[in-house]
Fold this sequence. Notes:
By secondary structure, the chain is an alpha+beta fold. It folds into 2 domains: 5-121; 150-529, Metallo-beta-lactamase domain (Metallo-beta-lactamase, Chain A, 4-Layer Sandwich). The chain has 9 helices and 26 strands. It has helices at residues 150-156, 201-210, 260-273, 310-315, 332-342, 344-355, 455-468, 494-518, 523-529, and strands spanning 5-15, 18-28, 34-37, 42-43, 49-52, 56-64, 67-74, 89-90, 96-109, 112-122, 125-126, 169-172, 178-183, 214-220, 229-235, 242-246, 251-254, 280-284, 325-329, 387-389, 397-402, 405-411, 421-425, 430-432, 474-475, 483-484. The strands form 5 sheets. Strands 5, 6, 7, 8, 9, 10 and 11 form a 7-stranded antiparallel sheet that branches. It has a 7-stranded mixed sheet with strand order 14-15-16-17-18-19-20, with helices on one face. It has a 6-stranded mixed sheet with strand order 21-22-23-24-25-26, covered by helices on one side. The protein is globular. 35% of the residues are buried. Bound molecules: zinc ion. Zinc ion (ZN) binds next to loops.
Amino acid sequence: MKVDYKICGFKCINKNTKYSFSFDIMYHNENGYICYENDSNYNLDYEISKIKFSEYTIRTKIESTDKFYLQVFCKEIDALGPLSDEAFEYDSNSNAYAVFEIHYSEISANGAKLKFLYVESFNGKQKPKIKKGEYYPSIPDGLIENWDNVDEVNAGKGYVENTKLTDKIYTKNSNGDNVAVAWDILSYDFMQGEAPDTVNPILWRMEKLNNLNGLFQVLPEIEIGGKDGLIYQIRTYDLATMTIVKSKSGWIVIDPLGGKETAAAGWVRFKQNVDATAKVCAILITHSHVDHYKGMEGIISSADILNVSQKDFCANPLIPENKVLVVAPNSFYDEAISENLYLGNCMSRRAVYMYGSSLPHDNCGQIGCGLGKTVGTYTGSLIQPSFELEMEEESNFMTLTIDGLIITFQNVPGTEAPAEFHIYLNDYDALCPGENITHTMHNLLTSRGAKVRDPKAFAKAIDNTINKFSNIQVIIGTHHWPTWNEDKNGSINECIEMMKKQRDMYQYFNDQVIRMVNKGMNMEEIAEEFKLP
Ligand SMILES: [Zn+2]
């Protein structure tokens, strides 16, 4: 009986100075069943050890704390996983063996240590070179050739000189010393020129646009008779985008990023370049995902948050000096706790795989994740807002006057996040559509374990926005760059066109999946057949 072994998983736990290894091994037993073993734990103590298994032998040599060699002897090696025969060498007794050079990295995510092992080479041979197109789906003919440069223009528009990050953003200890890297955009500087063979050219283009970081003026006051800017954005100081809007006596911040360190760095950059004594009078949180609220204390202290009910604020919309009104969508706090506290450790761990955030930043590693670069490793908290917005009866809309600005909110629960709203700045005809309109198609079933999203709810929410605010002049998203209506007297409003495309994409996705599932197709088959028109 031939026995096939396949090493299908490695785990390694660094306990003090001892190493404990466990290997998941898959093989066929004499009856042809696939068996798994994963209970082999060994303490090695920095020495070459020899461990006898019933059918195979593993020797391990510790090279350094992040690199070791695993020598695998097998009784029979007709098929040892995905490795070709040349992976093996033979000792003097004709026993076949393979030596894997394994690299070890460990990161912390929300209290949990994550370990990653990856095979760098075996028997001294480097991993085989990847052929162009091997790791991404085929790209429709003409798609790349026919790209216009609208996104390139918009992503760079309004850039405020010298606001690009020139250093990493660090977390600090109580003495102010740097203790860890919170955000490192410079590590993506290698992304120049055409896409390499290992990277999908569409993602490469997107991530070059996402690399553009700094302070951007979205709406200059000159358009309505002033001289300074009305709306600014800090982009790619984090995964999400932070928007800063001029109000009567200060500034309103929309989405204070995912980390205190990145939000603080963005706010400092804004003050240096726009308003040295800038005062935050309100913070609006578009939805219950961590990249949009956890950095709040980088900008304000939680003690500054105005304690007021919606009813009282509507009756008397005054924000006292040195207080900050914080408004979030209905059910924000419960939903944030539900996703990010009860399931926080699990979601953080899975997010590391989803974003590839522990992979090296290079052509074979992580280059970005479409929506933005990656999640940072920073600190932050969930803080209760002043109030969660209840809408007017039998309507999804509610208008508040916040520090002199008339702002209409649209409740859009169960879309990209379970608690989310769109924000319309009536004075500026500017729409912040939360995360429901971006320059990508959002995943509907996320691999990090966020609540499943309903494409119909996306489409309906966007449709309602189009019907309510037909004069939109700029869309200020919470990721990526804005979309402007360039020709104010033209027959086409680019903002509305962009919204229609997003609306129709989600609805089409919904309808086609229903059509295909009723034809008897499964998840994988639908994914392969589905094409956008
Ligand atoms: Zn986000």
